[in-house]
Amino acid sequence: MSRIIAGAAGGIPLTGVPGQMTRPTTDRVKEALFSRLDAYNVLTGAHVLDLFAGSGSLGVEAASRGAATVDLVEFADRAAAACRANADAINQVLGRTCVRVHRVKVETFLNRTPEDAQWDVVLMDPPYPMEDEPLMEVLSLLAPHLGEDAVVVVERSSRSGEPGWPEGFERFAEKKYGETRLWYLEPA
């Protein structure tokens, strides 16, 4: 069972997505990811966007660790329902509405986002079979909405090669954890 690892809601169990349509981020990978983000000092007071959110476990972890706002974007019905349950749980612990759920396709969400909306941290865990081209399209739609010192983390299969990042992005780190690889990007 997945849980919130640290912060104000540390230890709280999370609702998972029934079935095998999603691939949850393991606690080991999640702990490594958030240790790195904590080291970068980018979470406290940040506006966080969790794309292809699945159960929303990455986004609610960010909220527990001090993010100001978190937007979970998930299209699949079962996954969006898990996002709502986990958002409700963290919002209750925090005593405020910090986490919002958007049941919509990622591309639609980004196309409809007001021009002045900006995020400081973006967590992307697209389905592993997603080809590089649609991933680059999502990143291109995201680019105008990144804060100056934003960090974008893309989770992919460790069997996948490094995508050719679109113009406006620069990879500054990457790390492999078994079947998972995390790519860390920043605005160029």
TrEMBL record:
Coiled-coil regions, chain positions: none
Keywords of the record: Methyltransferase, Transferase
GO biological process, any: rRNA methylation
GO MF term set: methyltransferase activity
UniProt key word Transcription regulation: no
Superkingdom of source: Bacteria
Keyword Transferase on entry: yes
InterPro entries attached to this UniProt entry: RNA_MeTrfase_RsmD, SAM-dependent_MTases_sf
Name used for this protein in its record: 16S rRNA (Guanine966-N2)-methyltransferase
UniProt organism field: Arthrobacter subterraneus
